[in-house]
Design a protein that fits this description.
Structural class: mainly alpha
Largest sheet: none
Number of domains: 1
Number of strands: 0
Distance between the termini: 17 Å
Order of helices and strands: HHHHHHHHHHHHH
Length: about 300
């Protein structure tokens, strides 16, 4: 279990940079996600073909896995939309609601009763978020986009768990990215039609950031997450990802000067989020949230 938690928290640390790249990359959210998924799909396809590890799935399985990829695409679209409409802090703070959404969605999808304990952990997180960030009326649209993003993120992680046994981690990610890319190919013409003046040609710096975002913050991060999901519950993973905003806010403070004046509420909120993660992690270490029949890890 220690190796599993090491992979989980490494993926969270990497995820902390995704919001920063959303701010650094100049193209709007639709094209940002399109380029990210296009680069990632090409790199994965080349790697899988060169290593002869590409797994051919049945048509019905491809549809299921690609469908999960649609959720990933929607999550990214709204997440980066939140950052563009507001700032990095808004986008990542709203992302902390993933654990709360998971506590509600996971029982419905897996047809089990709601867990009072999981809801309690989630309420700790929500309380922490409210204390960390003083919501400003000028950021209402960005906040709305961020909340929708966290809902899609929760659904993605839960549904990702349901299809994780179809193939190994890297092939699963490849087919999911293809599904998300299909969504963006439909969405981008809509962007061009309604926002004809939108900036969509990446600069040289954008290309570098997109490559890092695709290789490290997509391929490496999601393979780690898929591996972890084979051992622990989706709720544990999503709750642990409440640490991501902490990393992102610190980076945003350093790079962009966001949240310069931290008041005591920030530290109290941070403590509540850390407490919720610590409580669930402790429970998992005791073996209460290990998947009853873990799927084989092919990677």
């Amino acid at each position: 279990m220690k190796e599993v938690f090491l992979k989980l928290h490494l993926s969270i640390f990497i995820a902390g940079f995704t919001g920063v790249f959303g701010k650094l990359i100049s193209v709007n959210e639709g094209f940002l996600v399109l380029y990210r998924m296009a680069i990632t799909s090409v790199l994965l396809f080349l790697f899988l073909n060169l290593t002869k590890k590409l797994v051919r799935l049945k048509s019905q399985d491809i549809i299921k896995v690609a469908g999960v990829g649609l959720l990933l695409g929607l999550h990214w679209l709204f997440f980066y939309g939140s950052i563009k409409a507001a700032n990095v802090s808004i986008g990542v703070i709203c992302f902390s609601l993933v654990g709360c959404f998971t506590a509600v969605f996971e029982p419905l999808i897996f047809r089990r009763g709601l867990s009072i304990k999981e809801l309690s952990y989630s309420l700790l997180t929500v309380a922490g978020i409210l204390l960390i960030f003083q919501f400003d009326s000028q950021y209402r649209f960005g906040i709305l986009l961020g909340v929708v993003s966290s809902a899609f993120a929760a659904l993605f992680t839960i549904c990702n768990k349901k299809v994780s046994g179809k193939c190994n981690s890297i092939n699963l990610l490849f087919y999911e990215i293809i599904g998300g890319l299909a969504l963006l190919c439909i969405a981008v013409p809509i962007y061009i039609h309604h926002l004809p003046q939108v900036h969509y040609i990446p600069t040289k710096a954008d290309i570098l950031y997109l490559l890092i975002l695709s290789v490290i913050c997509t391929i490496v991060m999601y393979i780690l997450q898929i591996q972890v999901l084979k051992k622990v519950s989706a709720f544990t993973v999503n709750l642990s990802y409440n640490l991501e905003p902490i990393y992102s806010i610190i980076l945003a403070m350093i790079l962009f000067g966001e949240a310069k004046d931290l008041n005591p509420a920030f530290y109290i909120g941070l403590s509540l989020i850390l407490l919720s993660v610590a409580l669930k992690s402790l429970e998992t270490f005791k073996g209460k949230s290990i998947v009853e029949s873990p799927t084989k890890d092919y990677v």
